[in-house]
Amino acid sequence: PTRSEGIAWFHKMDQVEPGFTLLSGKTAKDSEASITEGLSHEGKEQLLHNAVEVTCQFGDVIEKQDSKGKFFGVVLQGALEVRIKDALIAVLGENDVFGEMAFVLDTPRMANIIAVEPDTKVILISLSAIRKLKRESDRTQVWKNLAHMMAMRLTEKSWVSALSSPSLLKR
Predict the structure, then answer these.
(1) Model's pTM, two decimal places?
(2) CA distance 42 to 45
(3) Exposed e or buried b per residue across 59-98, where buried means at least 16 C-beta atoms within 10 angstroms of its C-beta
(4) Which H helix or E strand runs over 22?
(5) What radius of gyration, in Å, describes the C-alpha atoms of the chain?
(6) How far apart, in whole angstroms, are the C-alpha atoms of residue 75 and residue 113?
(7) Quick one: angle between helices 41-50 and 136-163, nearest 10?
(8) If exposure means fewest CB atoms within 10 Å of the residue's CB, which of 18, 74, 94, 143 is most exposed?
(9) How many alpha carbons lie under 13 Å from residue 4 in its C-beta half-sphere?
(10) Hey, CA dihedral for 145, 27, 123, 31, is it positive or negative?
C-alpha cells in the first residue's frame, strides 16, 4: 500500500497510535527469516510487500491490551516491552515476534506492547497479507511458522514455570 493507505488502514483498525511513520519500500532482511522460513522467493517478496513496516519512538504503544488481534509483528530493530497493566513481562528485541497468540486465536490481546528505544522498527503482518500470497504452499508455510513460534514460546514458558516450581526445588 501507499504511505497514506497504510496509515489510514491501521488507524481505521484502531491498532496504531498516531505519530508512527511508515517507511517507504521494504527489503527482505534476515530478521524476517523466522516468519518467512520455507517460503518461496516470490512468497517472501509478496508477504513483505503486503506487510507494513513501522518506525516507533520511545513510549509508542504498538498493541493495546484487550484490543483485537488483527495483525502480528516482528521486531526488525530496537526493543519493545510487553506489559500487563504496569507489570513488565518481557523485553523483545530483533527477530522477536509479538501478537501472534491474539492473531491466531482471534482473541483480545493479553498485553500492551510498547517501544522502549527510539527508531524501533517493526513489520506488521495482517491476515490479508497472508491471504494475498499466490501459492497455497506459501500460505500454509506462514501458518506452520506461526504454530512453531507459538509452540516454542509455550515450551520455554513451561520449562521456566517447571524449574521455578516449589515442589521441584524441594528435591
Answers:
(1) 0.71
(2) 5
(3) ebbbbbbebebbbbbbbbebbbbbbeeeeeeeebeeebbb
(4) strand 21-22
(5) 17
(6) 11
(7) 80
(8) 18
(9) 0
(10) positive
Residue 81: strand pairing partners: 91, 114
Looking at the chain, the number of H-run helices and the number of E-run strands are: 7, 9
Which ranges in the chain belong to alpha helices (H)?
3-12, 33-36, 41-50, 100-105, 127-131, 136-163, 166-169
User: How big is the chain, counted in residues?
Assistant: 171
Distance CA 52, CA 128 (A): 11
Cell of 144: 506452520
How does pLDDT run along the chain (171 residues), one tens digit per residue?
A: 444 454 444 444 444 333 333 332 333 333 334 788 999 999 999 998 999 999 999 999 999 999 988 899 999 999 999 999 888 988 999 888 899 989 998 899 999 999 999 999 999 999 999 999 999 999 999 999 999 888 887 776 655 555 455 554 454
Amino acid at 67: S
